[in-house]
Amino acid sequence: MTPNGKIDLKAMAKQKIEITTEYEEPSTDFQKELAEIFKKILNLPKISINDNFFEIGGDSLSAIKLQIEAFNSGIDLSYKDIFNYPTIKLLSQNITKTEVVVQEEDYDYTEINNLILKNSNPNKPRMKVDNIKNILLTGATGFMGSHILDCLIKNTRSNIYCLIRAKNNQDPQTRLLDTLRFYFGNKYDKLLFKRIFAIEGDISKPRLGLNNLYYNEIGNTINCVINGAAIVKHYGNSTIFNDTNITGTHNLIKFCENFNCKLIHLSTLSVSGNIFNSSINYNKNVVFSEKDLFINQDLSNIYIKTKFLSERLVLENIIHNNLNAKIIRLGNITNRYSDGAFQLNISENAFINRIRSFIQIGSVPTSLRNLCVEFTPVDICADAVVNLVKYKNDFTIFHVFNNNTITFEELIRKLAKLGIVLDFVDDTDFSKRVKFLAQNENTKNLVTGIINDFSKNKKIEYVTNIKMDNTFTNKYLKRLLFRWPKINEKYILKYISYLKSIKYI
């Protein structure tokens, strides 16, 4: 690292990479073809079929490039395959097989189903404000977490203690300030150590990475924990997902039980399995509401599984240990409604990369014309979350997403008024256009945002028969005078203007 905390590329270039795996030469034509692709992507002269892609220089970005090269060669290789089978040998043994749907092991959901069945009548209880003086917030340096912090400061009198890991030679205070300044300017500088406190810790470690004395001191101070920390990438190392999404949740539950704190656990609507192609064919459209957890969804994706299991862990402790907790499932978080600003690490957002690819290609397949697109602006979403935090109730699950969706056709019509013209083309023609662009060194980067969306028949598929429902949550929020905004041309203008201002499109 350089003295200012950035990666020292010159120093890294001098480091020798030692490959310790046993060399085994590619033997089949398929292995040889994959080896050539690996060497091209990673710029290596030689590669063993036992070499792990991510241990010899690969990362999430080069994994997309690998997928594009495989697409060009007619190899049916998904993004998930690269993470599940990171060597040529494993890929050659597995990717031609029929994908196995993984469902949860035998588990009796009777008690959980009875508990969450109560999330049905939001008009029943009288609204009671929960007097929360001190909140422990995890994930405060993230896009969603920082906006929840902003909303808490503006709409409550609570003090916010932010649990943050030291990272890239930066202490927690610097990391938090850098994040807040990026999104909100310097208006919160004066509140550091007054209402905003940065604590160095790690939810994946026992006692949250704190010593016994400080753990108890913080515990006796905090009234409520908002868990916004999570690994939100959809693919990656299972150990990292388990440590943060499951072990981290377990440790926060124990903290809340030890010190009688309220827990707000932020989750995702992806636990329904609705955003991934699945081998499960439901006989009819399935509604996934605040009364649902296990609906026989495919849990083979590590992201879905760990978020699902963390939810189940929370609900189990509500039932058996009288934990005071709420699960808030979030939708597709998008640019701020106020000014169109978006997350710091924009290149990691799959949705915006998808929109960017369509804009760069200049067309959209006809099959997507009537597909609904969800925009849940981060600042509005944070406002909804904080409203749910502020009041007492016996409910356990809320769905926070903007159900004022627009179709792809409406989106394209709004983009056209901003001078961005996209055409609807036949699905077959669109696939041919993508293949042509992917084979050209100068244009292959245009398709990175959608390359993972192609099915085995080389067509883009976003359709799911799992329908998200937030009727219960919206009725509850309506009592708090909260309304979701319409996605109008004014918002799309802010959205596009921001992307242009940072030269992302």
Key descriptive features of the protein:
single chain; seven-stranded parallel sheet; globular; alpha/beta; 17 strands
Topology diagram in text:
Elements: H1 9-13, H2 29-42, H3 60-72, H4 79-84, H5 88-94, H6 110-116, E1 128-129, E2 134-138, H7 143-155, E3 159-164, H8 172-184, E4 196-200, H9 212-219, E5 224-227, H10 238-259, E6 262-268, E7 286-288, H11 302-321, E8 325-330, E9 333-334, H12 350-361, E10 363-365, E11 372-373, E12 376-377, H13 378-390, E13 391-392, E14 397-400, E15 406-407, H14 408-417, E16 423-425, H15 427-438, E17 466-468, H16 471-479, H17 489-501
Parallel strand pairs: 2-3, 2-5, 3-4, 5-6, 6-8, 7-17, 8-14, 9-12, 10-16
Antiparallel strand pairs: 1-13, 11-15
Question: Can you give a write-up of this model?
Answer:
- The protein is of the alpha/beta class.
- Helices cover 39% and strands 12% of the residues.
- It has 17 helices and 17 strands.
- The strands form six sheets. The protein has a seven-stranded parallel beta sheet, with helices on both faces. The protein has a two-stranded antiparallel sheet with strand order 1-13.
**Alpha-carbon distance between the termini?**
30 Å
Roughly how much helix do the residues carry, as a percent range? 25-40%
The pLDDT mean sits at 89
Q: Sum up the overall morphology in one term.
A: globular
